[in-house]
Queue: 3 jobs
Job 1
Amino acid sequence: MRTIYQINSFANTCGYFYNAEMEEDFNCNNGYNCKHPQQEETETNEETGKEVGKCYAWSCPLGYEAGEEDFTNPEIDQNGYSEYEENEFIVVEMQREGE
């Protein structure tokens, strides 16, 4: 089932989210970084040449940015959220246990 998450909540449970400043001494996207190999939004650390992914609701390879229509779609679990806010929410396909 598709489910809406606030991007900060989702990032805290995502296995690809990390803070490059803490791990690599590179400040990029205020510490909202992504190790997913399909993340296309990146910044290159000029000292190391390493590309660091940027975590955004609109570029997440695991879902898509929620739009106003997602908050009224009966096929999407709104997860307790009722009001749309741009760049704040992501829709992710979640598997239920046993599926």
Job 2
Amino acid sequence: MKKGILIFLIGFLCGALFLNLLCINAIKVHKNIIRAELGVEQQLLAQRAEKKRDYIRALVHRWNVVDTASQDGFRVFRPETSQRIDGGFFFPFHAIVLRQVEKTTDPKGKGQKINEGLQRAQLALTMEKAGMIEAAEEQWEKATELIPIDIDRLKIMSLENRKNIHSDLYKEAEKNNTRQLVDLKK
């Protein structure tokens, strides 16, 4: 009986170890697939924008294609960032807990909608600065559909957020993040 339990435990641990190693490799491969898909999608969006003669949007999409292909492009695809965010050996076990936290804290996905609305509001502000008034109005409308508040209130919130982005606290956080990336390279 004890021998059977011991064999079962050893087999279970070996199986868990093997699956964990497979998961670690799968995460790296999956990230490369996401990178390739992002590049293809941005390429198609750039072509579509050029057909519509929307060259500013095409420029942004083309820049994203370059960033997906470049070694120093998007930080999330860089090797030094991967070491920090891929989670290491215990990540597959942590992921189970993280998924449950996500499900319980935002079961209806309201947080994701609010985030998209806030990002669209920031995009609208930038479009206004670039003189793209009609496109900005479209983004403001979409933002207020996602965050059911008045456009004027959303504009005030977005401008306040911009002030925070340019604050000393934010600049310090950005420096710390850059410093961590440099430390990882060493």
Job 3
Amino acid sequence: MPTPAFTWYKCTGTNAATETDCSNHPCWLNEDIHAVDTENYQVAAPQEVDTYNYSYEYVLRGKLTAAAPNYVENVKVSGPAYQPDVDLDPLNKMTVMWGRTKTPTTPIDTASIIATVSQHDNYYQEGNALALTDVATQLVLNGYLDWWLYSQLKVGYGAQPGTLPVVTFDLWFEVS
């Protein structure tokens, strides 16, 4: 049986309409572009206590590019149960925010109205994963997920440059 595979697209620009394959390189940046150069596109820590800076919303759209015999269903995404800088900063000055929408918007670098839920508190394992397909969706080859995943990095006062480690997220689905 073939193993299902997805291609992930970072969606940038007006209404997140420009799709770029980013399957292995999702990065939170301070510009609405597809790049892996986090050194030159860092999200700066704010200079005042109790304030936050935000990355541009990272808009992801998934497409099934290798299918099981018939279809894939119940696609969900989850991630680690910790904030991205927990090992380097016990005060947790960086938080990954998640949300989803069926109608993409132009990515912004202020507090998102879509990515409003802290990922590590809510979508941290399969049982708490965020659904990216509707219950009745049977995704076939070259089909897109029902929902766009919005992710945003929220950076608090005192965060140190270069402290964001690699963060791994898991994709869950059923094969039929």
